Amino acid sequence: MAASQLLDEREDERDNGSDNGSYHVMVSMEDRTHTQTTPTGRTRPYLDVPSDHVDDKANVNESRRLLNGFRKGLRKNQDYVHISVPKSTIIQTSSTSRLPAEWWKTGIAFIWAAFNLLLTTVMITVVHERVPDKSISPPLPDKFFDYVERVTWAFSVTEVNGMILVALWFVQWLFLKHKAIVGRRFFFLQGMLYLYRMITMYITTLPVPSMHMDCAPKLYGDSQGKVQRALQLVSGGGLSITGSHLMCGDFMYSGHTVMLTLTFLFIQEYSPRSLLWRFYHVICWLLSAVGVVCILVAHEHYSVDVVVAYFITSRLFYWYHTMANNQGLRGSPHNYLNRTWWNFAFNFLEKNVKMRVPCTFSWPLSIPTACFKNPCRSYSKVQSTRDE
Fold this sequence. Notes:
Blueprint: E1 2-8, H1 11-16, E2 24-30, E3 33-37, E4 43-47, H2 54-76, H3 87-98, H4 103-128, H5 143-147, H6 154-174, H7 179-203, H8 223-235, H9 255-269, H10 275-297, H11 303-325, H12 327-330, H13 343-350, H14 381-387
Helix pairs in contact: 4-7, 4-8, 6-9, 6-10, 7-9, 9-10, 9-11
Protein backbone atom coordinates (compact mmCIF):
# COMPACT_ATOMS: atom_id res chain seq x y z
CA MET A 1 0.00 0.00 0.00
CA ALA A 2 1.45 3.47 -1.10
CA ALA A 3 0.81 6.90 0.41
CA SER A 4 1.91 10.45 -0.70
CA GLN A 5 2.50 13.29 1.64
CA LEU A 6 2.97 16.94 0.68
CA LEU A 7 5.35 18.89 2.79
CA ASP A 8 5.22 22.65 2.51
CA GLU A 9 8.47 24.03 3.69
CA ARG A 10 7.31 27.59 3.76
CA GLU A 11 3.64 27.50 4.54
CA ASP A 12 3.61 30.97 5.95
CA GLU A 13 4.91 32.50 2.75
CA ARG A 14 2.30 30.72 0.66
CA ASP A 15 -0.43 32.00 2.89
CA ASN A 16 0.93 35.54 2.37
CA GLY A 17 0.89 35.11 -1.40
CA SER A 18 4.64 35.45 -1.97
CA ASP A 19 6.21 32.75 -4.16
CA ASN A 20 9.72 34.07 -4.04
CA GLY A 21 12.21 31.41 -3.11
CA SER A 22 9.51 29.05 -2.20
CA TYR A 23 9.69 25.45 -3.13
CA HIS A 24 7.72 22.33 -2.43
CA VAL A 25 9.10 18.91 -1.59
CA MET A 26 7.07 15.78 -2.36
CA VAL A 27 8.06 12.77 -0.32
CA SER A 28 6.67 9.43 -1.36
CA MET A 29 6.78 6.57 1.19
CA GLU A 30 5.85 3.00 0.38
CA ASP A 31 4.92 0.64 3.18
CA ARG A 32 5.87 -2.76 1.84
CA THR A 33 4.81 -5.77 3.73
CA HIS A 34 6.26 -9.30 3.68
CA THR A 35 4.95 -12.52 5.10
CA GLN A 36 6.56 -14.33 8.02
CA THR A 37 5.87 -17.90 8.94
CA THR A 38 4.98 -18.35 12.62
CA PRO A 39 5.70 -21.52 14.71
CA THR A 40 2.05 -22.49 14.31
CA GLY A 41 2.28 -22.52 10.52
CA ARG A 42 0.33 -19.27 9.93
CA THR A 43 1.67 -16.20 8.11
CA ARG A 44 1.67 -12.60 9.24
CA PRO A 45 3.03 -9.39 7.71
CA TYR A 46 6.03 -7.56 9.01
CA LEU A 47 7.62 -4.28 8.14
CA ASP A 48 10.73 -4.04 6.12
CA VAL A 49 13.49 -2.94 8.43
CA PRO A 50 16.95 -1.69 7.73
CA SER A 51 19.64 -4.28 7.17
CA ASP A 52 21.58 -3.31 10.26
CA HIS A 53 18.63 -4.38 12.43
CA VAL A 54 18.06 -7.75 10.80
CA ASP A 55 20.39 -9.71 13.06
CA ASP A 56 18.97 -8.22 16.26
CA LYS A 57 15.43 -8.91 15.18
CA ALA A 58 16.32 -12.50 14.22
CA ASN A 59 17.77 -13.07 17.69
CA VAL A 60 14.65 -11.69 19.30
CA ASN A 61 12.44 -13.87 17.17
CA GLU A 62 14.49 -16.94 17.99
CA SER A 63 14.27 -16.20 21.72
CA ARG A 64 10.53 -15.74 21.46
CA ARG A 65 10.19 -19.00 19.56
CA LEU A 66 12.13 -20.93 22.22
CA LEU A 67 10.14 -19.31 25.02
CA ASN A 68 6.84 -20.17 23.35
CA GLY A 69 7.98 -23.76 22.85
CA PHE A 70 8.97 -24.04 26.52
CA ARG A 71 5.61 -22.66 27.64
CA LYS A 72 3.71 -25.08 25.43
CA GLY A 73 5.71 -27.99 26.79
CA LEU A 74 5.12 -26.83 30.36
CA ARG A 75 1.37 -26.52 29.80
CA LYS A 76 1.30 -29.93 28.17
CA ASN A 77 2.99 -31.67 31.10
CA GLN A 78 1.80 -29.54 33.97
CA ASP A 79 -0.32 -32.37 35.41
CA TYR A 80 2.64 -34.76 35.71
CA VAL A 81 5.54 -34.60 38.14
CA HIS A 82 8.34 -37.11 37.68
CA ILE A 83 9.90 -38.24 40.93
CA SER A 84 12.68 -40.80 40.75
CA VAL A 85 12.25 -43.49 43.42
CA PRO A 86 15.02 -45.99 44.16
CA LYS A 87 14.24 -49.54 43.10
CA SER A 88 14.97 -50.84 46.58
CA THR A 89 12.28 -48.56 48.01
CA ILE A 90 9.72 -49.87 45.53
CA ILE A 91 10.59 -53.48 46.33
CA GLN A 92 10.46 -52.77 50.07
CA THR A 93 7.04 -51.12 49.78
CA SER A 94 5.68 -54.02 47.72
CA SER A 95 7.10 -56.56 50.15
CA THR A 96 5.61 -54.72 53.13
CA SER A 97 2.14 -54.63 51.59
CA ARG A 98 2.28 -58.35 50.79
CA LEU A 99 3.84 -59.34 54.13
CA PRO A 100 2.02 -57.35 56.83
CA ALA A 101 3.29 -57.81 60.38
CA GLU A 102 -0.07 -58.10 62.19
CA TRP A 103 1.43 -58.49 65.63
CA TRP A 104 -2.00 -58.98 67.15
CA LYS A 105 -2.26 -62.31 65.33
CA THR A 106 1.15 -63.25 66.70
CA GLY A 107 -0.15 -62.47 70.17
CA ILE A 108 -3.13 -64.77 69.63
CA ALA A 109 -0.80 -67.56 68.45
CA PHE A 110 1.36 -67.06 71.55
CA ILE A 111 -1.71 -67.35 73.79
CA TRP A 112 -2.66 -70.52 71.91
CA ALA A 113 0.76 -72.07 72.55
CA ALA A 114 0.86 -71.02 76.22
CA PHE A 115 -2.65 -72.36 76.82
CA ASN A 116 -1.86 -75.79 75.37
CA LEU A 117 1.45 -75.95 77.23
CA LEU A 118 -0.30 -75.20 80.51
CA LEU A 119 -3.07 -77.64 79.72
CA THR A 120 -0.51 -80.34 78.93
CA THR A 121 1.12 -79.74 82.32
CA VAL A 122 -2.24 -80.21 84.02
CA MET A 123 -2.82 -83.37 82.00
CA ILE A 124 0.53 -84.78 83.17
CA THR A 125 -0.56 -84.47 86.78
CA VAL A 126 -3.78 -86.29 85.91
CA VAL A 127 -2.08 -89.08 83.96
CA HIS A 128 0.56 -89.52 86.67
CA GLU A 129 -2.12 -90.86 88.99
CA ARG A 130 -2.97 -93.59 86.44
CA VAL A 131 0.55 -94.89 85.78
CA PRO A 132 0.73 -98.51 87.01
CA ASP A 133 3.39 -99.43 89.53
CA LYS A 134 6.51 -100.84 87.89
CA SER A 135 6.47 -103.81 90.23
CA ILE A 136 3.06 -104.78 88.82
CA SER A 137 3.49 -103.62 85.21
CA PRO A 138 7.15 -103.85 84.17
CA PRO A 139 8.49 -101.85 81.21
CA LEU A 140 7.36 -102.89 77.75
CA PRO A 141 9.87 -104.64 75.47
CA ASP A 142 11.87 -102.23 73.33
CA LYS A 143 14.31 -103.32 70.66
CA PHE A 144 16.63 -100.35 71.16
CA PHE A 145 16.93 -101.08 74.87
CA ASP A 146 17.86 -104.68 74.09
CA TYR A 147 21.05 -103.57 72.32
CA VAL A 148 21.99 -100.33 74.10
CA GLU A 149 22.64 -100.11 77.80
CA ARG A 150 21.45 -97.11 79.73
CA VAL A 151 23.80 -94.14 80.20
CA THR A 152 22.94 -92.07 83.25
CA TRP A 153 24.16 -88.67 82.03
CA ALA A 154 22.72 -88.93 78.51
CA PHE A 155 19.42 -87.26 79.30
CA SER A 156 21.24 -84.20 80.66
CA VAL A 157 22.91 -83.88 77.24
CA THR A 158 19.47 -83.92 75.63
CA GLU A 159 18.20 -81.07 77.76
CA VAL A 160 21.35 -78.98 77.37
CA ASN A 161 21.21 -79.39 73.60
CA GLY A 162 17.55 -78.44 73.66
CA MET A 163 18.26 -75.24 75.60
CA ILE A 164 21.08 -74.32 73.18
CA LEU A 165 18.83 -74.80 70.16
CA VAL A 166 16.02 -72.77 71.71
CA ALA A 167 18.46 -69.96 72.52
CA LEU A 168 19.92 -70.00 68.99
CA TRP A 169 16.47 -69.93 67.44
CA PHE A 170 15.35 -67.09 69.71
CA VAL A 171 18.35 -64.93 68.75
CA GLN A 172 17.87 -65.72 65.07
CA TRP A 173 14.16 -64.90 65.32
CA LEU A 174 14.92 -61.53 66.92
CA PHE A 175 16.98 -60.46 63.91
CA LEU A 176 14.47 -61.60 61.30
CA LYS A 177 12.78 -58.78 59.41
CA HIS A 178 9.41 -60.56 59.28
CA LYS A 179 9.57 -61.91 62.81
CA ALA A 180 5.84 -61.38 63.41
CA ILE A 181 4.83 -63.84 60.68
CA VAL A 182 7.51 -66.39 61.59
CA GLY A 183 6.72 -66.07 65.30
CA ARG A 184 3.03 -66.84 64.93
CA ARG A 185 3.85 -69.84 62.75
CA PHE A 186 6.17 -71.18 65.43
CA PHE A 187 3.69 -70.60 68.26
CA PHE A 188 0.79 -72.11 66.33
CA LEU A 189 2.71 -75.28 65.47
CA GLN A 190 4.03 -75.58 69.01
CA GLY A 191 0.51 -75.30 70.40
CA MET A 192 -0.77 -77.90 67.93
CA LEU A 193 1.98 -80.37 68.82
CA TYR A 194 1.35 -80.07 72.56
CA LEU A 195 -2.38 -80.42 71.97
CA TYR A 196 -1.79 -83.72 70.14
CA ARG A 197 0.62 -84.81 72.86
CA MET A 198 -1.92 -84.09 75.55
CA ILE A 199 -4.48 -86.26 73.72
CA THR A 200 -2.15 -89.20 73.12
CA MET A 201 -0.86 -89.35 76.69
CA TYR A 202 -4.41 -89.23 78.07
CA ILE A 203 -6.07 -91.89 75.93
CA THR A 204 -3.30 -94.48 76.44
CA THR A 205 -1.18 -94.62 79.60
CA LEU A 206 2.05 -96.56 79.16
CA PRO A 207 4.11 -98.05 82.00
CA VAL A 208 7.51 -96.61 82.75
CA PRO A 209 10.12 -97.46 80.07
CA SER A 210 12.86 -98.38 82.55
CA MET A 211 13.14 -99.68 86.09
CA HIS A 212 15.48 -96.84 87.08
CA MET A 213 12.66 -94.26 86.99
CA ASP A 214 11.40 -93.10 90.36
CA CYS A 215 8.02 -91.44 90.07
CA ALA A 216 6.64 -89.09 92.70
CA PRO A 217 4.01 -90.61 95.02
CA LYS A 218 0.42 -90.39 93.90
CA LEU A 219 -1.79 -87.73 95.46
CA TYR A 220 -5.19 -89.18 94.49
CA GLY A 221 -7.79 -86.70 95.71
CA ASP A 222 -5.37 -83.95 96.80
CA SER A 223 -6.28 -81.22 94.31
CA GLN A 224 -4.11 -78.61 95.97
CA GLY A 225 -1.06 -80.86 95.78
CA LYS A 226 -1.71 -81.49 92.07
CA VAL A 227 -1.87 -77.76 91.40
CA GLN A 228 1.42 -77.25 93.21
CA ARG A 229 3.06 -79.98 91.14
CA ALA A 230 1.77 -78.43 87.94
CA LEU A 231 3.14 -75.02 88.93
CA GLN A 232 6.47 -76.58 89.88
CA LEU A 233 6.65 -78.28 86.49
CA VAL A 234 5.93 -75.00 84.68
CA SER A 235 8.42 -73.01 86.73
CA GLY A 236 11.20 -75.48 85.95
CA GLY A 237 10.45 -75.57 82.24
CA GLY A 238 9.56 -79.27 82.41
CA LEU A 239 13.25 -80.20 82.66
CA SER A 240 14.72 -82.93 84.79
CA ILE A 241 17.97 -81.04 85.39
CA THR A 242 15.99 -78.34 87.20
CA GLY A 243 14.37 -80.95 89.46
CA SER A 244 10.86 -79.95 88.41
CA HIS A 245 9.87 -83.06 86.43
CA LEU A 246 9.19 -85.81 88.97
CA MET A 247 5.99 -87.24 87.43
CA CYS A 248 5.52 -90.10 85.01
CA GLY A 249 3.01 -90.92 82.33
CA ASP A 250 3.89 -88.36 79.62
CA PHE A 251 5.57 -90.93 77.40
CA MET A 252 3.49 -90.94 74.23
CA TYR A 253 4.95 -88.90 72.66
CA SER A 254 8.29 -87.28 73.59
CA GLY A 255 8.08 -83.54 74.29
CA HIS A 256 11.87 -83.22 74.19
CA THR A 257 11.92 -84.65 70.67
CA VAL A 258 9.26 -82.15 69.64
CA MET A 259 11.30 -79.15 70.72
CA LEU A 260 14.59 -80.48 69.33
CA THR A 261 13.00 -81.15 65.95
CA LEU A 262 10.83 -78.04 65.73
CA THR A 263 13.59 -75.57 66.60
CA PHE A 264 15.98 -77.12 64.07
CA LEU A 265 13.36 -77.04 61.30
CA PHE A 266 12.67 -73.35 61.91
CA ILE A 267 16.37 -72.52 62.13
CA GLN A 268 16.95 -74.21 58.79
CA GLU A 269 13.88 -72.77 57.06
CA TYR A 270 14.40 -69.13 58.00
CA SER A 271 18.10 -68.74 57.31
CA PRO A 272 20.11 -68.33 54.08
CA ARG A 273 21.60 -71.22 52.10
CA SER A 274 25.13 -69.90 51.80
CA LEU A 275 28.16 -72.02 52.71
CA LEU A 276 28.66 -70.37 56.09
CA TRP A 277 25.01 -70.82 56.99
CA ARG A 278 25.10 -74.44 55.89
CA PHE A 279 27.88 -75.01 58.39
CA TYR A 280 25.59 -73.46 61.00
CA HIS A 281 22.79 -75.81 59.89
CA VAL A 282 25.04 -78.82 60.30
CA ILE A 283 25.89 -77.78 63.87
CA CYS A 284 22.20 -77.34 64.72
CA TRP A 285 21.34 -80.66 63.11
CA LEU A 286 24.02 -82.40 65.20
CA LEU A 287 22.68 -80.81 68.36
CA SER A 288 19.18 -81.99 67.50
CA ALA A 289 20.16 -85.49 66.39
CA VAL A 290 22.46 -86.11 69.36
CA GLY A 291 19.76 -84.88 71.71
CA VAL A 292 17.17 -87.25 70.25
CA VAL A 293 19.53 -90.23 70.39
CA CYS A 294 20.45 -89.44 73.98
CA ILE A 295 16.77 -89.71 74.95
CA LEU A 296 16.87 -93.34 73.92
CA VAL A 297 20.32 -93.93 75.38
CA ALA A 298 19.06 -92.65 78.72
CA HIS A 299 16.00 -94.96 78.50
CA GLU A 300 13.69 -92.05 79.30
CA HIS A 301 11.24 -92.79 76.47
CA TYR A 302 10.25 -95.76 74.41
CA SER A 303 11.56 -95.81 70.86
CA VAL A 304 8.01 -95.43 69.55
CA ASP A 305 7.65 -92.22 71.57
CA VAL A 306 10.59 -90.66 69.76
CA VAL A 307 9.57 -91.91 66.30
CA VAL A 308 6.00 -90.68 66.63
CA ALA A 309 7.17 -87.32 67.98
CA TYR A 310 9.55 -86.80 65.06
CA PHE A 311 6.97 -87.89 62.51
CA ILE A 312 4.18 -85.65 63.78
CA THR A 313 6.47 -82.63 64.22
CA SER A 314 8.12 -82.85 60.81
CA ARG A 315 4.88 -83.65 58.91
CA LEU A 316 2.96 -80.82 60.56
CA PHE A 317 5.79 -78.40 59.78
CA TYR A 318 5.96 -79.50 56.15
CA TRP A 319 2.18 -79.43 55.64
CA TYR A 320 1.85 -75.96 57.07
CA HIS A 321 4.71 -74.46 55.06
CA THR A 322 3.62 -76.18 51.87
CA MET A 323 0.26 -74.44 52.17
CA ALA A 324 1.85 -71.15 53.21
CA ASN A 325 4.49 -70.98 50.45
CA ASN A 326 2.24 -72.02 47.55
CA GLN A 327 -0.50 -69.48 46.94
CA GLY A 328 -2.14 -71.62 44.24
CA LEU A 329 -2.90 -74.42 46.73
CA ARG A 330 -5.05 -72.29 49.00
CA GLY A 331 -7.98 -71.94 46.65
CA SER A 332 -7.52 -75.15 44.69
CA PRO A 333 -10.42 -77.64 44.97
CA HIS A 334 -7.95 -80.51 44.50
CA ASN A 335 -5.78 -79.54 47.48
CA TYR A 336 -6.48 -82.16 50.13
CA LEU A 337 -4.38 -80.26 52.64
CA ASN A 338 -7.32 -77.87 52.96
CA ARG A 339 -9.28 -80.66 54.59
CA THR A 340 -7.26 -80.50 57.80
CA TRP A 341 -9.39 -79.55 60.78
CA TRP A 342 -7.10 -76.63 61.60
CA ASN A 343 -7.41 -75.13 58.12
CA PHE A 344 -9.65 -72.33 59.44
CA ALA A 345 -6.87 -71.29 61.85
CA PHE A 346 -4.37 -71.41 59.00
CA ASN A 347 -6.54 -69.14 56.85
CA PHE A 348 -6.86 -66.72 59.75
CA LEU A 349 -3.11 -66.51 60.34
CA GLU A 350 -1.99 -66.54 56.68
CA LYS A 351 -4.85 -64.63 55.03
CA ASN A 352 -2.83 -61.49 54.23
CA VAL A 353 0.52 -63.20 53.58
CA LYS A 354 0.68 -63.13 49.76
CA MET A 355 4.19 -64.42 49.14
CA ARG A 356 6.90 -66.62 50.61
CA VAL A 357 8.62 -65.05 53.59
CA PRO A 358 12.18 -64.15 52.52
CA CYS A 359 15.20 -64.77 54.74
CA THR A 360 16.07 -61.14 55.42
CA PHE A 361 17.49 -59.76 58.64
CA SER A 362 17.26 -56.39 60.37
CA TRP A 363 18.11 -54.88 63.73
CA PRO A 364 15.54 -55.89 66.35
CA LEU A 365 15.38 -52.36 67.80
CA SER A 366 15.57 -49.12 65.84
CA ILE A 367 16.50 -45.83 67.56
CA PRO A 368 14.31 -42.94 66.35
CA THR A 369 16.24 -40.20 64.59
CA ALA A 370 14.42 -37.61 66.67
CA CYS A 371 16.49 -38.69 69.66
CA PHE A 372 19.57 -37.16 68.05
CA LYS A 373 17.98 -33.77 67.39
CA ASN A 374 18.19 -30.90 69.86
CA PRO A 375 14.88 -28.99 69.82
CA CYS A 376 16.59 -25.95 71.39
CA ARG A 377 18.63 -25.46 68.19
CA SER A 378 15.61 -25.46 65.88
CA TYR A 379 15.53 -21.74 65.04
CA SER A 380 13.74 -20.12 62.17
CA LYS A 381 15.11 -17.09 60.35
CA VAL A 382 12.49 -14.86 61.93
CA GLN A 383 13.30 -16.08 65.41
CA SER A 384 17.03 -15.68 64.94
CA THR A 385 16.58 -12.14 63.59
CA ARG A 386 14.25 -11.23 66.45
CA ASP A 387 16.73 -12.56 69.01
CA GLU A 388 19.45 -10.40 67.51
